[in-house]
Amino acid sequence: MSETPQVPPPDDIPVVSSPLELFVDEQDRVIVGRGGGLHDSHPNAGLAYIGRVYEQTREGSQKYTLKPIMLDIAQPHRVFISGKSGSGKSYTLGVLIEEIQKAQMGVACVVVDIMGVFTASKEPNHDPREIESLNNWELLPEGVSKVKIFVPAGFTPQIPRNLYDEPFSFKPDDLELDDWLYTFNINFNSAMGLCLSEVMNFAKKHYPHGFSIPDIINVIQNNPHITDPEKGFALTSRKALVSKLLAAEHWGIFSQQGTNLSQFCQRDTCAILDVSPLSENLRGLVTGILARKILEARRRIARGGEVAMEDRIPITWIVVDEAHNFAPAKGTTPALEALVRLAKEGRHPGVNLVLATQQPGATSNEIISQCDVLITHNLSYDEDIKTFKAKAPCEVPKEMIDSRFIRSMAVGVGILAVQSMKISRAFMVRIRPRQSQHGGKELLPTGLGKRLEEQPPIESNAGGLGNSGEREEKTSPESSSTVEEGQFKTEQDFYPDKEITTSEEPSMSITNVFTELKGTPALNLSEDLAEDVVERALTYDDFFPKTGPFDSQTARYHAAPDALVRKAVEILDKSNYCVKAKTHESGAWLLFGEHNEVAHSILFAVTSVSDQLITAFKASQLPKAPPEGVISLKKFVKMLDVGF
Question: Where are the domains of the chain?
Fold first, then answer.
């Protein structure tokens, strides 16, 4: 690494007036996350080069500007990386993985990859623009060393063999009762829940060397205590439970042998578990099992107790992207309890945790409170920004807690907040370019460069809006009221008996990823928020199982536009009222109705995958009670533009 560049800093480096004191070593590097004693004895070991200081004072002082930042990775840490989609969050995660592997400290690194974006890290970075950036940073393209890619065993027939190294699976007895209950959506106090509890207790006692799903089914069907007509469980409950277990055999993650923990956690090796083919529940299940087993194994090692050969693992870094899916602030998942325990109790036995999310406000406070290193990129939503302000482990300058400052940060720029006596406050960082290939780039339409008027129109049997804003009727004798796949319904399709009033303003083009829904709900998203919403919607694979083309590079199916359209139509069918109410400083408008946040995101996203827009959707009925957080129903109704 070269010395701090002597060239004047770019004009876009943020100005921060608050005094800054950093720990700078003899090599003119900013040392973060470790004390002077450890650094004196190991000045060049266990350090991750993550970027450079990226701020200057109002007076023009550049005391620390562009100095290299070295993050300690020799001691236990909990690292929390956040940022909206496209801000550089996953990219930063990739930089940290590169540095853990380059350090060669004899530790293991296990990455739960829910989008299949880190599997490309084996390869050197071959993006021409990033290679130029690497040259400017005096770095070379270099693939991550000793990477093993694991995929769910049940999905190997669908995945090209050159895209993974080994299949992985778990033994059914790796699961706790709560895992089964959550994954099967069974209440513990229900007949099925109580039956499953009895069955699992029996199986653990009578199958000391492990049991399979057929073993569990055998207990349900043949154990006298379970089948007894008077003291046992009803046949309907037992049949329903067997049906769920038979379905579980096809999840693709179970086998009688299972993958040994030592295969995941190997010295100086990065194991990437590509769980992108799995549903969200199963991704959480895999994450929870891994976190629990790694913590338990390291605890036994730290205590000096007897450890089975397959559980003898080194100090381990667990890396989880999109952490809000596994450790939510509200509700639960199969991974939540295991991740909370790991965050609280993993330091002493040597289990490090790195979490990344685009929704810090939706992530468990119990976990964030344990994190001693926070890297915060650009955030859009107020709740996410408030979480950063509340959970930063050190003082944050007043400039940085301004929402406008956080929303204005460039891609790859973040705020680094570290719990340390050697650092006076949080400061700005520019993350270095990736040396390995980044698999998280967004896919763009192949016809993006074409002029809008050259794009073929989307055919629809329903009347659409012309450029004049007047409704155009199809004259073809083959026209009908049926809406083809991949097309939008209009209000006339939803409410054929109503008089339609349309805006004189033409629908807005989506070439700049700017969406607008006419009439109520009057959705109006800025470009960056539109991209964020689209990205969120496309990550919900449960709605779109294998609905799009298979991408051989990422080994994932991508949701097709027609699937998004169909889902949006379903959402509108279920909605019963829309409200024109400003909910974010960003200018977004909220659609109320009988749907959740996921469905809401899909409705937003669907307007960005077609050059037709859902127009003039009105409420079918007034709400009987105000929605949560609304005090006056009368005032709320006045906000509705529904023509009642």
Answer: 30-165+262-431, 172-248, 445-644
